[in-house]
Amino acid sequence: MNSRDIDQLAKKIWDYHLMRQPLKKADYIFVLCSNDLRVAEYAAKLYQDGWAPKIIFSGNRGSLTNTWPEPEAEKFAQIAIREGVPEKDIIKEPNATNTGENVAFTRKLFQDKDLAIGSLIALQKPFMERRAYATIKKLWPEIDFVVSSPPISYENYPNEILDKEYLINTMVGDLQRLQLYPLKGFIVPQPIPKDVWDAYEKLVQAGFTKHLVVQS
């Protein structure tokens, strides 16, 4: 399989993961932190543009950020402050190590602090929008929310830190999770079109298996 064929298959999965929900004003911007610092910059921009008056960053260190000296939430908060977000408008949840914990721990934090919240703008990497959506629907069903991500195309997403091989492996693995995780009660089911699943199978056959869940 040549690189053009791989890109066509990967773009089909990218387009499926990307939900393209329109923004609407909310009480908080909820950032599911990761290794992509562009999401922190996007959160700061949405704050500056008036989409929400507060930001909460959720994330500890993960497999791709375990060399950072601080939790992802702290790193993202530092970027937001650098971009002009006042520290008083930032909340940090520094313990979550996966998407489910991002949602569950943040929900509990709001409950423990007795903070009023009715709506969220949830931010993730573009190719993790659908997984974030399905997780919030399952673990925080009462919240009104939309999912968004930095407006970066598939072609422009890879950079010196997150290369194309990482991108495709992660997208393939997340699609597998969308199939498996409803059975475990982690997320609400998401219909996966046949052409998207066909693209998944071809990319797995091509060797993009580094992010797959090992099934027993």
From TrEMBL:
Q: Which InterPro entries does this one have? A: Cell_Envelope_Assoc, DUF218, Rossmann-like_a/b/a_fold
CDD domains according to UniProt: YdcF-like (cd06259)
Q: Where is the DUF218 domain?
A: 27-144
What do the Gene Ontology cellular component annotations say?
plasma membrane
**Pfam families, sorted:** DUF218 (PF02698)
Per its record, how is this protein called by name? DUF218 domain-containing protein
- The organism named in the record is Candidatus Woykebacteria bacterium RIFCSPHIGHO2_02_FULL_43_16b
